[in-house]
Structure formats: C-alpha cells, structure tokens
Amino acid sequence: MLSHKARKVAVLGVAAALLMTGCGRDAGAPAGAAASAVPIASGKATGTITVWAQAEEGAALPQLAKDFEAANPGVKVNVTAVPWDAAHNKYQTAIAGGTTPDVAQMGTTWMSDFSDAFEPVPSEVDTSGIFPGALKTTEVAGTHVGVPWYVDTRVVYYRTDLAAKAGHDTFPTTWDGFKSLAKDLQTKAGAKFGVRLPVGEGDSFQSMLPFPWSNGAQLVNEDSTKWTLDTPEMVDALKYYNSFFEEGIADKSPATGAGAGEAAFVNGTVPMLIAGPNAIGQLEKAGGPGFADKFSVGMIPKEKTATSFVGGSDLVVFKKSQNRDTAWKFIQYLSQPEVQTKWYKLTGDLPAKQASWTDASLSGDAKLAVFGDQLKDTNSPPAVTTWTQVGAAADTQLEQIIRAGKDPAVAMKELQSTADSAGTGH
Amino acid sequence: MTSPTETLTPASPRAETDTPGVRPRPGKRRRRIRPQTLTYVLLVLGVVATLLPFAWMLLGSFKTQGELLRRPITWWPEDPTLENYSQWFTSLHIDTFFFNSLLVAVVTVLGNLLFCSMVGYVLAKMDFPGKKFLFLIVMVTLMVPGVVTFVPLFVMVSKLGLVNTYPALFLPFLAGPLGVFLMRQFMTGIPDSIIEAARIDGASELRIFTRVVMPLCGPPLATLGILTFLTSWNNFLWPLVAAQSQDKYTLPVALSLFSTGQDATNYGLLLAGSVLVITPIILLFIMLQRYFIQSVAATGIK
Predict the structure, then answer these.
(1) Three-state DSSP class for residue A56
(2) What SS3 class is residue B248?
(3) Residues of A in contact with B56 (CB under 8 A)
(4) pLDDT value of residue A112
C-alpha cells in the first residue's frame, strides 16, 4: 500500500494533471446553470445499470438492488464497492477517462468538484421532505445535480455520569452554558480538559463551523458570488472558540492518533467531543459493556441559532450514462421513505427523508432523536470549487489564532483577502 | 524498555567467562570486547525497533475493535479472536483478490525480466547511431514521477477499451526505465570477448542473448524481480482506478475497501488483512534473500 504521504502526492499530481487536461473543456457551454433537466421516460425500468458506492454502502447496496430488480423484471443492477479514502481519485480519473458508471454515491462536499459531469435532477424525482440542509448540498450554481441519500450531522457527545458529578443534570443549550459545563467537568469532575475541539488537523476549520453558523455567520453571500469571512459574527465566534483554548478548557494540541478522541472520552480525561452518528457505535465498542448508559448527546449549543454541519452522501447520475432512465428510477426507488428506513436498518446510515424518522427504530432511540432534531438546523460549506483551497487557508489561520495567539479579526481579514483572490468560481 | 536489559545480560556473562579462561592480557581483551558488546546492543535495539510495528500488527490482528480503541494500549490480546481472519476468508473472498494480485505481479515480473534485459542488452552491447540518445531518453523517463503520467495513462487505457480487464492492470508496467538501467549497467560489465567468441562460433544475436548473456545475469535479474514484484504487489492507486468491478480488485484495494469507512476504521480487519498481504512478500524475500543481498553487493561494487 502507498504511504499516506505518497498518496497525497499522487492526489496532487492527479489534480494537477486534471487541471492541465481540463483547460479547454466547456469553452462554449455556459457553466451548469443553464443546463435544463431532461424528464425521465415513462414506463418500466429496463436494461443494466452500474452503480458505484463506497465501502459499507457498496457492501450493503446489493440487498436493496435485489428488491429493485424483483420489482422490475429484466433489470440488472451491478454494484461496485469503492474504498472511501481513494474514491475521490477514482471518480476524478473515471471522469477524465470517460469510464464513469451510471449512478454513483458522492460525498456531499465533493459535489462541486465534479458537478460538470452530473445530470441535472429531473422534476419527477421527489425531493420534498428531505432535510433542507442536505438538499442544499446538491445545489451547484442554482441547479440540483444530485439527490441526498443519507445524512450525517455533528452533535456534542458528553459523559452523563461526569456531568452529574459536575452538577449538571441537563445538557446546556446556550454558549455560556456549554462553556460552564466544560469548565465544571474540568474543575469538579476530574477531567483533564473539558472538551475536545479540533485544531491543527486537516479540516479543523470545517469542523469548527457550527460555532460561526450558530452565531449567524455565513461563508458566502446569498448567491455565492462573494466570500464573507471577516464579518463580526465570524470573528466573535472565533473569539468564543479560542477562549476555550486560552482558558485551558480545551487542549491546544490534542492527541490525534487513531481512536485518541474516543479513548480520552472513555477514560474521562476529555469527557466531551463533537462528532457524527457513527461515534455512538465507536464509543460503545471502546467503552465496553454498560458504557452506553454513561454518555449522551446534545444539540450544538445555541447563540443565535443551533446550527450544525451536515454531511453524508448524495446520489448522482453521470451525463455519460447509457441508461439514464433506469438510473433515475433506481434513485427514485432509493429515495422512498420506507426504502430509506430499510437502508438505515442495513447500514446505520441516517435517512435523508424526514418521513423515515417516524419509524420506531429511529424515533425510539433517545440519542438518535437528538440527531433528528439537529438535522432540522444544519448548514454546509458552499458548493464552490475554490472551497478546498479556502478551507485549507482557513485551517492555517485557525491554527495561528489558537497556537500562536493571532488576533481573530486580523486572521479573518487575511483569510478574506486570500479567499477574494481565489474567488468563488462564478 | 525491557529489551536493552535483556540483551545486556546474556552478552556480559560471556565476556566475563571468556576472560578468566584466556588469562593473558586481560585488560587488552576487555577493551576489545566492550565495543563489540555495544555494537550488538545497538544492533539488537535496531532490530527490536524495526520489528515492533510488525509485532503490533500481528498481535493486533487477534484483538477486537474495542480493545484496539482502548487506552492505555494492551500488547497481548486479552481476549484473542480469529474473527478478523475468518471474516477475510469467508465473507470477503480474499482468494479472488489474492489471485488477482499474484497474477498481475507474476506477469509484471516476467515482462520486466524479459523486456528490460532485452533493451539493456541492446544499449550495452550493440553499436548503432543514436544509441547514446536513446539511453538518455530512458534515463530522462526515470526522472518523470508516475503521478504525472497517471491520468494520461488511464485515458490511453480507456481509449484502448481495456478498462476493467487484467491487461489494464499489468500492461503499462511490463517494462520500466529503472529495470533497463539496472540491466544495462550489469551487462556493460560482461566482457565483450565472450560475446565475440560466441559470434565467431556462428551464434545468432538471439542465441547470444538467451544462451550466453542471460545466464550471466542472475544477480540483477533477482534484484529486478524482487523490486518489480514488490512494486506491483503494493500498487494501490492504479489497480483501484483501472479495475472497475470488485472481481478485478487486488489485495491493497480490497484492504482499503473493507477496513476503512468514511470516518471509522475497522482496525482489527485492517491489521489481519495487512498480515495476510505481507506474508507472501516475507516468504519471497526469505527464499530469494541470498540472491538479493548478492546482487545488491555486486551492483554496489560497480
């Protein structure tokens, strides 16, 4: 296997090569926006389609594909599982080589990278009742080019036993309350740090975004034409975030190794962290039997709103598809609430359709119910091609604020000018 | 931290038992042994440091996910399980991936041994105009990183209609500049007189190549074979992109596919898979180790 570094170099190389080969592309056609969706042909689905899906999804999808084949005699769905950590490369080269499948699973943050290769969603695909934050991830330059499949959002995990020891029986809902809980965990419940907050890793800035969003900040303006990174809302949120580090409530250099966050949570040294739904399983495994009763989850603390990050995956159809009608019909099938519930039971992926959440398997679980509530108020980084570049610059600024004591206002001014020169690709 | 003391104890008594037996010039003797003992201690420390990650991998492959996530870490599996291995052999069809990896590696190795030595022979022993220039071109391609040619190569393979076939997995790697360089350097050292003698005896060029030159090239062929096998066996990105259905995936792709999720890794499965992936390499190395060290030494002298 290639080392991590080598793979990073490879990714850069692929990206560079794509940039070079991509120069002449789309010279005449207007970018995305003007493309209109072609309706799906009526009648039964026919023929064969190829679907690429990542890791666990790829392993479980054949079971749903079987149901779809049974309902549509003569249809064959070929599922190929693609490793998560290299899927982005695989799609990139497949698009360059013209060997794309009919349907694919896209990470929500990848939508803008490849949007040129996706078909606009036909109006027959019912997207009503999908969590609005998730739906927003599929919109690139005003056109929907994918359908949310499953969702993922971040909430706060905390140790109920230690919180009780620190004198907190309920989880706080405000910024002040959140900070005092973190402080009390440290001073009264014997924790080394009150909360684990990301700093100095890849995507730290992205992981920190629930705080600015909850303070009313936005990364770009309404029509995604201009970055808005140096607003007072953004700066204030960074000051709040930074105060955790300044006051020693959060570790400036948290251990980043595999499972380090989970381990510190389990042994009580850092009894709060912000994570997605699969941390439930990870923590229960790391903590052993009975640990499930010792922790709970709470919504992102509220300042103006309580807005979290929404991720997950969208389903797309490639323009090169030879059987796009059946491809869209398969997506229609996967979007049905009862199929989404079944999918949750197979994989643990949270349904994008709100109607699926009424099922007892989801609504009956206290922890998952919090996710259901949190999903109603979410945001995501803008689907613009320069976000990767701006996000990386933001990670550096964030690290300088926290570790080198840079003034948040100055840092965000600099970030704004970096972002301005990168533009939003519009 | 137990290892240094462990290694010290067996070494020092020997030094003490030796000295009284020999008697004369004990001081001098001791001075000669000390640095040697130190060398051994350092060597053993080096070996331990090298083997530690492998030991962790092997022991970890018998642990459950819960134990692997726990801190402080445990060395010896508390509750050893074969679950990780049985998963690879039953539900994940490791035999398919193993076969693919082996097929691709073997064909790539054979291709390199044949083509690289042919080109190397021509560049070393034949005279024709533009030879130096051709060799220069080969050397220049050695400087081009593979990632630069990655996408164009894929576009080429896809235009040939080879995507998702076995040839797509090995065809681009059947000859490489490094192999050509290695073979040419070694063959340059073969005396011209042997080749001339064969030519006078009426042997054709092909016969000289196969019967006279190739039998002399054992060491560089072994090196080239091992290096190519390793590269092919470990290759991840190309087979991932060129194989588009699971039945054409190779071991590294399968390893990544089944053990790492979007933001959760199944460490036990990953470690067990890694053990299975590196075992053939270690066996191969042990079998060929004699040739390998010989040839590294031989090419080093040149």
Answers:
(1) helix
(2) helix
(3) none
(4) 83
Reported ipTM: the value is 0.70
pLDDT at B28 exceeding the cut of 60: no
Class of domain B87-301: mainly alpha
Give the N- to C-terminal CA distance of chain B in Å, as an integer. 42
How far is Cα B65 from Cα B277, in angstroms, rounded to an integer? 20
For residues B168 and B160, give the distance between their C-alpha atoms in angstroms, rounded to a whole number: 9
Cβ distance B237 to A13 less than 8 Å, yes or no, reads no
Q: Which of A185, A147, A148 is nearest to A166 (CA)?
A: A185
Gap between the Cα atoms of A193 and A176, Å rounded: 17
SS (H, E, C) A88-124: HHHHHHHHHHCCCCCEEEEEHHHHHHHHHHECCCCCC
- What number is the average pLDDT over the span B162-186? 89
| d(C-alpha B26, C-alpha B33), whole Å | 11
**Nearest residue in chain A measured CA to CA from B238:** A90
Contact call for residues B296 and B112 (beta carbons, < 8 A): no
Token output for A193: 């740090």
Question: Which residues on chain B are in Cβ contact (under 8 Å) with A7?
Answer: 236-237
Query: What mean pLDDT is reported for chain B?
Result: 81
Nearest residue on chain B to A57, alpha-carbon basis: B261
**CB neighbours of B171 closer than 8 A, spacing ≥ 6?**
B157, B162
Q: Tell me where in chain B the CATH 1.10.3720.10 domain(s) lie.
A: 87-301
Q: Tokens for A237? A: 């949120």
pLDDT digits (tens, 9 = 90+) for A31-43: 444 457 788 888 7
Cβ proximity of B187 and B266 under 8 Å: no
Do residue A81 and residue B234 have CB atoms under 8 angstroms apart? no
Residues of B with CB under 8 A from a CB of A: 64-66, 68-71, 145-148, 150-152, 154-155, 157-158, 163, 234-237, 240-241, 244-246, 252-253, 255-258, 260-265, 267, 277
Name the residue ranges covered by the structural domains of chain A.
42-151+311-368, 155-309+382-422
CB B119 within 8 Å of CB B183: yes
> B252 CA to chain A: closest CA distance, Å?
6
| Residues paired with A81 in a beta bridge | A53
Distance from the A123 Cα atom to the nearest Cα atom in chain B, whole angstroms: 30
Query: How far apart are alpha carbons B71 and A260 in whole angstroms?
Result: 8
Query: How much is the pLDDT for A327?
Result: 93
Which of B83, B93, B147, B277 is the best residue to mutate to test the A interface, defined by the most A CB atoms within 10 Å of its own CB?
B147
A257: left (phi over 0), alpha (psi -120 to 50) or beta: beta
Intrachain domains A42-151+311-368 and A155-309+382-422 with the same fold: yes
Q: How far is B66 from chain A (nearest CA, A)?
A: 4
The pLDDT tens digits for B30-54 are 555 677 888 999 999 999 999 999 9
From the list A12, A78, A96, which residue is nearest B155 (CB)?
A96
* Cβ-based neighbours of B181, under 8 Å, separated by 6 or more: B120, B138, B139, B142
Q: Which segments in chain A show pLDDT lower than 50? A: 1-3, 5-6, 9-34
Which residues of chain A have a CB within 8 Å of the CB of B232? none
What is the CATH number that goes with domain A155-309+382-422? Answer: 3.40.190.10
Q: Which of B151, B246, B263 has the CB atom closest to A21's CB atom?
A: B151
Q: In what order do the strands lie in the sheet with A272-275?
A: A272-275, A155-159, A295-298
Q: What is the DSSP string of A239-278?
A: HHHHHHHHTTSS-SS---STTHHHHHHHTTSS-EEEE-TT
Name the E strands within B206-295.
none
Cα Dmax for chain A: 66
Instruction: Give the pairing of strands A308-317 and A378-379.
Output: parallel
A104 touches chain B (CB under 8 A): no
For domain A42-151+311-368, give the CATH number: 3.40.190.10
